[in-house]
Amino acid sequence: xxxxxxxxxxxxxxxxxxxxxxxxxxxxxxxxxxxxxxxxxxxxxxxxxxxxxxxxxxxxxxxxxxxxxxxxxxxxxxxxxxxxxxxxxxxxxxxxxxxxxxxxxxxxxxxxxxxxxxxxxxxxxxxxxxxxxxxxxxxxxxxxxxxxxxxxxxxxxxxxxxxxxxxxxxxxxxxxxxxxxxxxxxxxxxxxxxxxxxxxxxxxxxxxxxxxxxxxxxxxxxxxxxxxxxxxxxxxxxxxxxxxxxxxxxxxxxxxxxxxxxxxxxxxxxxxxxxxxxxxxxxxxxxxxxxxxxxxxxxxxxxxxxxxxxxxxxxxxxxxxxxxxxxxxxxxxxxxxxxxxxxxxxxxxxxxxxxxxxxxxxxxxxxxxxxxxxxxxxxxxxxxxxxxxxxxxxxxxxxxxxxxxxxxxxxxxxxxxxxxxxxxxxxxxxxxxxxxxxxxxxxxxxxxxxxxxxxxxxxxxxxxxxxxxxxxxxxxxxxxxxxxxxxxxxxxxxx
Length: 495
What we know:
By secondary structure, the protein is an alpha/beta fold. It contains 16 helices and 18 strands. Strands 5-13-12-11-10-6-7 form a 7-stranded mixed β-sheet, with helices on both faces. α8 (205-216) packs parallel to α9 (231-239). It starts with 8 loop residues before the first helix and ends with a helix. Residues 21-89 form the HTH gntR-type domain.
């Protein structure tokens, strides 16, 4: 067995004196790592604590603490008048303990030792860039969020003794206080005649749709979506193994007659809609079509999954109430996000459904998000109760409306001969269709060279359509002007 002095401990034990982890524990963990990987096999004698402390330039008491930790965890044993030895199973062929630098004990395996199922359906579609200017999907500007005010709500709740008891408890049902105030808020703002018992609080719209699909969809079910639809939701449906059928969209939203024809041909399990601002075209589903879809749902028995995408952002007039507000037969499941205009950490998702379905969904939420975030939900509930949500939303809507109008003016002035668009009544993006043939991927690459990033998820191009979705929410006037200048210049060069 190798002599203790021949083992180059200092080459594989690295001490970080700036971290909060005690030095003795850092060393003990690295020695255990070496034992587990066979570099310090059964029977290896460790050097005396004085020698060990000199080798690593540590206090002898630290070395004693290291050996005590190894003994306490059952990795070593001390024999009177003989020393401290590694214990465990004897290896048939000890691992070489030369070249520790090349055989770094810190390297985690790059691959698994077993096979597993992979899926390209869930490949991340999002791109990132270092460009100074970005046209995104239509997200709020975090620079407008009153993070200090939001943080004060949360900090105040953390300091209350009455909340300290619940902060460490699991409660996937969510904060009852938040659900009470959110149900009232949704009743007043969206006409949903619900109570807290009809609410499930989730982390995001995607989590909501995942839970719904797990409970209500089976492989082979037919789900209707818009001919252009939200790609993240499509990924969830594809992973569930359903058959998706595209329904055409026009200036009044999804075409109801096409839905009817689909129902006549086969059994439809679900229709997924973003009726307030259809994703990605931003058109609103007309009131007449909403009533017709509710009637069709009752007639043919399909579920309507209503996603209130961008419901908070409307400018010119009051938005049409959701389908769920007029549903008397329990055919609509309403999902959405709350606080999208707030700082990212203060946003949450929710599901509205009849109580019998809600009880089943709580079981699934208890598996994937058992702990929840009771304190954050309490803060959001108080922001509703004190009117903070309404005050902030009213202020931010004015800014977003000005940005919408300014982007429309810039596009009209610089690209009127190349593109066509309608000023959206709400939301944070504009749907732009091209009048002339343009290679959108080439346009995106050219703009990137001029410091403007246009992600591929915003580009829609096939034989019948050449279009883009341009977000304006997080661009101020100066950023918008410079972005459109680059965009316009490159569009004219390749058109």
